[in-house]
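Write out the 3D structure for:
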Amino acid sequence: MATPTIKLTHGTDSGIWLIAGFLAIISLLTSISNQVWAGHLPFLIAAGVLMWIFSKINYQKLSIFSNIGLLLAFALLLFTRVTGGFDARSIEIGSHQIQTMYFIGFLLTFYLSKYLAVKINNQVRTGEEITLRESIIQCIIISIICAGIFTSKQSTGIILFIICTILLLLGGVKFKYITSFIGICLILVLIIVNLGLFRSSTLENRISYWWTGELSMEKITDGEELTPAELKEREKYYKAYGEQMVYSQAMIARASWFPTKVGQAYLKDEIPAGKNDYVFAVIVEEFGILVGIFVLSLYLFLLFRAIRIAQRSEGIFAKLLATSIGLWISLLAIVHIAVNSGMMPATGETLPLISNGGMGIVFTGILLGILLNISKYSEKKPIKHIPNF
């Protein structure tokens, strides 16, 4: 069967450009207020350039590298875990620490979107559904990568797992297979946490502090024999991290509706991670509650636009990929805002395209560029009986 031809349907989604523009402006203003704009601006410019470049690259042509991308994801995950920097989340290139977990996660969703698209197209032609064996293989692939990320950055691993599960559901994998997969993974996570393996003690401590406001000395020591000086230092670290949550909530609570404290907020100086993990609280304190609501609305609108692009796309791969990109960016933002607002334990997730410069900003620019390209192209002959997104 001939490969479907690709045609240009309509211009790139102006809504995506508008969202990216507003986020970039807020990002730049925040970096100026935090006096880090000199290091932040180059990453912001790079993100814009890459967004434009990837909006011009046909996403279908990129899809031929999906299997290679999966192999790269495994290799990069292994390399990061073995030689990575702090908490084994990043690799060192020159004098820079580059976090790899977001890129690894995207390579997985990119591969999974392509795999499921091929299977659905085969099902349309032959009537053959995805088998139990094929479902198990994909679940194993997802489990290995999500587990590798989870053991160094729990929240990112959970977000990736949720996105992959949604893709499996949209991709026609039987619901009973998916629920069994989720159940098995939950049991394994509970076993890991109960045994205190990997960084599960950190996860427990953050949940405990968020729920009770107190630190567990047992979780702080993690069963290790520590000297009094080491114990004091570790306790100081956990308390400082916990206090940032308290300060972020205070910053939001004392904020006015309008930007009355631009450049004059003083609580942000009490939060070491105010440029990254708690940047939303800084935005609200300095620029006001309305701007904070506007920022949240931008990410929700981005998710809405991604879903609309998926609905209008005629190819299965485009539908799944657009959905995964929208979920990836918006879920990271929602988790970040929820942590800053005290609605969930600390996670260490940054705010896409706004938190202080780094590869996260560049990566977001690439994702938005691919999303723009999906909105630009579609298959000439739509396939019938495809999932209604």
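The two ends are 26 Å apart (CA to CA).
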